[in-house]
Amino acid sequence: MQKEKILVLDFGGQYNELIARRVRELSVYCEVHPYNMSLNKIKEYNPKGIIFTGGPNSCYAKDAPTIDKKIFELNIPILGICYGSQLMANLLGGTVSKAKISEYGKTEINIIGESKLFDDCHRQTIVWMSHTDYISKAPEGFQVTAFSNDCPVAAMEKDNLYAVQFHPEVMHTVEGMLMLKNFVTLICGCHGEWQMSDFVKNSVKELKEKIKDGKVLCALSGGVDSSVAAILLSKAIGKQLTCVFVDHGLLRKNEAQEVEEVFGPNGPYKLNFIKVDASAEFYQKLKGVVDPEEKRKIIGKEFIRVFEREAKKIGEVDYLVQGTIYPDVIESGLGKSATIKSHHNVGGLPDVIDFKEIIEPLRLLFKDEVRKVGLELGIPEKLVYRQPFPGPGLGIRIIGEVTKEKIEILQDADYIYREELEKAGVAKNLGQYFAALTNMRSVGVMGDERTYLYAVVLRAVNTSDFMTADWAQIPFDVMDIISRRIVNEVKGINRVLYDFTSKPPATIEFE
Ligand code: XMP
User: Fold this and answer.
1) Segments in 46-170 forming alpha helices (H)
2) Half-sphere exposure of 317 toward its Cβ, with a 13 Å CA cutoff?
3) Is this structure's pTM higher than 0.85?
4) Distance (Å, rounded) from C-alpha 42 to C-alpha 510?
5) What are the phi and psi torsion angles at 497 (to 5°)?
6) Which residue owns the Cα nearest ligand 1 atom 20?
7) How far apart are the first and last CA of the chain?
8) For 450-480, what is each residue's pLDDT tens digit?
9) Residue 65 — φ and ψ, nearest 5°?
10) Domains 5-187 and 197-384 share a fold
11) For residue 405, how far is its CA from the centre of ligand 1 (angstroms)?
12) DSSP bridge pairs for 97
């Protein structure tokens, strides 16, 4: 177990895992736990410092999350953020009031007096506020160390208890990282010795202890998350893990072979690896289907059916591994937004496989952290930096009916497009880039022959969160090469189009 740990107690705010991630960026191990973790458990966990997160409640509200006051007597430094700061004030005898003006967004605070938390910070600095309640009176003995125009107690402290009304973890708080660093190092005394390799080491140890001689099953897609989860598990329990890779025939060119080369029996990891070529079944089911949502449902359902069939062959399993990462946890936690598309992330598997428990070894990590773990595990860069690829694959990048012929046309065009973007050095700056096949055929002329062939659409977007995206500008000379190569080399295409639409109103995929 880590010697230096920071414990984040979650009071329901939006940025909780971001706080943990920031602390990990400071090379100190950090985990988020629910606010009602018992005092005994906290003592046992033995953190060097505790952070109370923000949250949507008012600390005076009925049923508002609270905490045992004895936590302040554990002699562990505590930093309360937003709701966490108000809770600290309220429990220790200060006053929290409803603000006449809610502060939201970038705000200037004035730092007063001396505080280790603000060591090296400017006396006036921009922070991110997002609150309605505020601390109107600090508890007795607390020193106010910062204020803003609308907030008399933007920060306060006493001994090793610190509270800030703003959010140091978000990037809009200009010196937020410095403040967190001050808390973690100067106040909690951490040295910052944690590395991703420690995450790997600890996870392997914990997985070993948990699974013992149990049998584990993993649906491997070749994507970053499931690949990293599988290799982590295989490090812990070796051949007790079986990976099932369903090739639905809707993957990118050469992708099925690439996955097999890395994860198959002749690859470096020597996994217990079962590859199922189910393409014929998928093509059969997709025959005549043109509606994109229907395609998604068919592919998702078929995937589960094939997986279930293969899983049954290996007999009972104890655990099912899923490559869930933190953003998936947040997205599924919201669960209220309208269904724009039904995502296929092997979500239905738990309903059809008999097992004791799901294991999600990456559920606390962000995508870039997962990539670091992947590199740490020695997974090839090509796989680790693979761009996102939808579960239903090329099935949803072909407008109209999906046929074997159309899949091959699209695989070839997409391969050239990606190859040229990578060669030109453009790819590394793009969020996602791929080709899609329209259902439109038009007249062309090749040699002296009239052609009547498909048009392919090239798409490239810039995005940080994949919720919104801007169409990307690709130099015309690169486009020129791509367009010529596609019409010359790919049989079945005589026109190349580019998609100049952002998301919204379009989506990133072209279906
Ligand atoms: P859209 O098209 O909704 O895509 O703007 C946003 C991001 O999600 C990916 N995507 C999927 N990923 N299963 C996945 O794992 C799916 O069913 C799926 N559909 C879309 C898409 O590639 C983009 O990165």
Assistant:
1) 83-91
2) 28
3) no
4) 49
5) -115, 160
6) 390
7) 47
8) 999 999 999 999 987 777 889 999 999 999 9
9) -60, 135
10) yes
11) 24
12) 134
333-392, pLDDT tens digit by residue? 433 334 566 666 666 677 777 888 999 999 888 888 999 999 999 998 888 988 889 989
Catalytic residues: 82, 167, 169
Residues in the chain: 511
The 10s digit of each residue's pLDDT in 189-202 is 999 998 888 899 99
Pick from 220, 226, 251, 466 the residue to mutate for probing ligand 1's pocket: most ligand atoms within 8 Å of its CB. 466
Going from the C-alpha of 344 to that of each of 329, 349, 395, the distances in angstroms are: 15, 11, 12
Q: Which token pair is 243?
A: 């990976």
Residue 124: which H helix or E strand, with range?
strand 124-137
pLDDT tens, position by position, 477-490:
999 999 999 999 99
222 confidence band (pLDDT: 50, 70, 90): confident
C-alpha to C-alpha distance for 57 and 229, rounded to whole angstroms: 35
pLDDT tens digits for range 63-72: 999 999 999 9
Q: What is the dihedral of CA 204, 207, 211, 216, to 10 degrees?
A: -80
Cα-based torsion angle of the residue sequence 172, 174, 175, 176 in order, rounded to the nearest 10 degrees:
0
Q: Which of the four CATH numbers 3.40.50.1980, 3.40.50.700, 3.30.1360.200, 3.40.50.880 does domain 5-187 have?
A: 3.40.50.880
- DSSP summary character for residue 346: S
CATH 1.10.8.50 applies to domain 197-384: no
CA distance 393 to 282: 12
Residues with CB under 6 A from ligand 1: 341, 343-345, 388, 390-392, 432, 466, 503, 507-509
